[in-house]
Structures are given as C-alpha cells and as structure tokens.
Amino acid sequence: MPEIIALFISEEKHVTEALASAAGPLCKAAEMVTEAIKNGGRLFYAGAGTSGRLGVLDASEIPPTFGVPPDLVQGIIAGGPVALYSSMEGAEDQPEQGAISILERGVRATDVVCGITASGRTPFVLGALRKAGEAGARTILITCNPLRSRSNATWDLEIDLPTGPEIVTGSTRLKAGTATKIALNILSTCAMIRLGRVKGNMMVDLRASNSKLKDRATRLVSRLRGLSYEQARTELENANWNVRACLS
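^ thats the sequence. predicted structure below, dont judge the formating
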C-alpha cells in the first residue's frame, strides 16, 4: 500500500506540468469568458462522465461564491441530471444529443461554450461545440489528449493538458480529472476576478446562506471596515447579509 500511495503522489507532478504548459490558452480562455459575460453572455460547460460532472460542479459553485445569477454559468452533462450520480456512459456517444442540449439551453452568439473531454473525441461534446459554433457562440475545447485527431476541429480555442497515462489505465478521473478541475477553477475564477467579484483575495459577493458563510462574511466586513465582530454582524443583519452593501 505505501508504494501505491507514493506512486499516486509522484504522478501529480504531471498535473502541474500540464497546467503550466497550457498557461497561454488558459489566459485566452479566461479573457474570452470575461468579455462574453461583460456583454451579457453566459458560460456553458458541456461534458460526459467525469468531465461532465466536473463542469456541473464548477458551475454550481459560482453563484454562492460570487453572488451571480444561477444561469450565468451552467453545466451540461450527457444523460442529464441522473448521470451526476449514476453511470450513463452510452449517452456520450450521441453527438445529436449534444447539439440538442445546446438548443435546449438557448445558447446564443454572446455566449461561450466550453467542451470538456479528456480524450478530445467524445461525440456528445463535439456535437455540442459544433451546434454552439453554428449559433455564433465562442467555443473552447479542454482535453488531456494532445495526440488526438484534429481533422474535424471547429472550436475557437483548445486547451491541451497532457497529463500522460493514468495509473489505472483509461481512468481519466485521476490525473486528467485533477488537471481539468484546476483548469475550470482557473477559467471561472479568473473571469469573476476580472469582473470585480473579488476584492483582493476576498469574496465580497458571497451569499451568506448558512452559519459558516455568515461567520465568514462577518469576519470579512470586520476586517475591511475596522469594526468589531459584533458591530460587523449587526451591520450585515441590517443589510440583509449583503456584504458589498456593507463595504460601499
């Protein structure tokens, strides 16, 4: 067992290397998303299996973290919501379903659609990107397979994360999944920072929807306003827990 764990840990260096090699495209992607949202657009992630789940996860965390509407960043997964907790692997083989998902979400020219596929060839994702491009939306492909065929590439930007072979062959929830999760973190968080949803390194637009977040909001206001914890909490209660209102 110690040897297996040591192998897992040693393999993680490939994640860092893959992300570093993709710094340029990641920057371009973040700028693309920022401009789209500034102009009234939205960000969509489209994926299948692990890739789809990672997209839905990132999308679901944006509203409470940055105080934006839930439809601003959306995750599309092959097979629908049931695929979040149950394997629906066959759903990824249908490019027409990817296209239909784009139509169902009402993707338009102001939007950005980011397709996520470790192999770079998942039909559902490619179908979604193709239909998004036809609608005039900007398109991004995130993949961990730089050796894939590019004969039918139709997207505007591609982000290659060459994480190499997995410890368990073909299990892309491992290094590929880790690198993809970090790439999505970078993409969405950088866009939110550029849009003014962060002050320094603090979440000034967080939604204080539970005790933990109310405590965090109170400490944030206390620090930035030079108030006691009790004073900050009172101000937040009077402002219906709107952190930005307490800082303006």
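The two ends are 54 Å apart (CA to CA).
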